[in-house]
Amino acid sequence: FQHSAPQRSTSQAVPDFAFAFDIDGVLVRSSDPIPRAREALLFLQRSRIPFILLTNGGGKHETERITELSSKLRVPLSARQLIQSHTPFAALAPQYHDRHVLVVGGDHGSCRSVAHAYGFQHVVTPADILGTTPHIWPSSAVFSAYYSSFAQPLRNDLQKHKRSLLQIGAIFVFADPRDWALDLHLILDLLLSHQGHLGTRSPRNGDASLPNRGYQQDGQPPLYFSNPDLWWAARYHLPRLGQGGFREALEGVWRAVTGGEKEGVELKKEVLGKPGQAMFEYAERALGEEREEVLKGEGDVPKLRKVYVIGDNPESDIRGGNMFESPVGTEWESVLVRTGVFDGGKEPAWKPKTIVKDVWEAVQWGLDRSG
Ligand code: G3P
Ligand code: MG
């Protein structure tokens, strides 16, 4: 393939199409760049064809993650181009400005600073709770050196031995939890609590005269997951469990705790990220801003007509691209690559427009299609 993209001559039309790239399994495997990913992005940059990165990953602020990606891929990228699973959480910060929120996921409680940057004022992490109340989950004592390196113990007035005054207004799973047991247990405690007061139990739990047998009917905090991914493509050659695996574990415990096979109830939660409509609407708006930037100085920017969403996971990237209903009538076409979760073995559960070897082929297919 040619390294240097043809420069768009002034006579060539300003592109009315763009690309949305998934990250894990399309551009990188953990921190290893995928072959030809750099060339694909450089080609688009040199051709001044806009693109964004649309990932169910997260755990760091967009500015930090894009700096890392730019260095790994050796391609200059901007935070404007990056939408992570938790990016849309920022819109929820105002409604919890005066509440404590539990933020779960990421390394070393990294999501605390992300939540603060998004505008959440009172952020608590599982490490803070464990640091303040070690006996809340004895099995995590073995990880105390790790936790004490970043925990911020709670203010004294927020905890009493028996009835905690710490009241959690919402639970956000920003990124894949590391210590599933501790995180799952604290979420379970809060969902069974009286109005989000850690260390309590609601008297309504199990009351068959109430909806949902009384569970989550007593002001317990809403539970937000940033993505549904059961699998994702890391460095290991087989897919790894993602945040969807953690949620399934929690849902299994929830069903057992709320009555088991016969009487167990459904867990009420919000699951955002791909393939959801909201995530793709967010992406489309970001693409609009990115096009303004990339196509600046080229006269009238034509309406965005087509977006090619390039992904490795049929359940999130392909399903999302196929189901998305653009509020402004843009057509989204999904392209599945074989460098990630989908290994080409059998028919994908969600049918893409085409299946290609890798992101370079995906870009060439899109360009051929857009003329
Ligand atoms: O945690 C990362 C995983 O959920 C998938 O990320 O970039 O393939 O959407 P991505
Ligand atoms: Mg992926």
Automatic annotation (TrEMBL):
This is HAD-superfamily hydrolase. The lineage of its organism: Eukaryota, Fungi, Dikarya, Ascomycota, Pezizomycotina. It holds the Pfam family Hydrolase_like. GO terms for biological process: glycerophospholipid biosynthetic process. InterPro entries: CDP-alcohol_PTase-I (IPR050324), HAD-like_sf (IPR036412), HAD-SF_hydro_IIA (IPR006357), HAD-SF_hydro_IIA_CECR5 (IPR006353), HAD_sf (IPR023214). Keywords: Hydrolase. The keyword Hydrolase applies. The keyword S-adenosyl-L-methionine does not apply. GO terms for cellular component: mitochondrion. Gene3D superfamilies: HAD superfamily/HAD-like. It comes from Viridothelium virens (Speckled blister lichen).
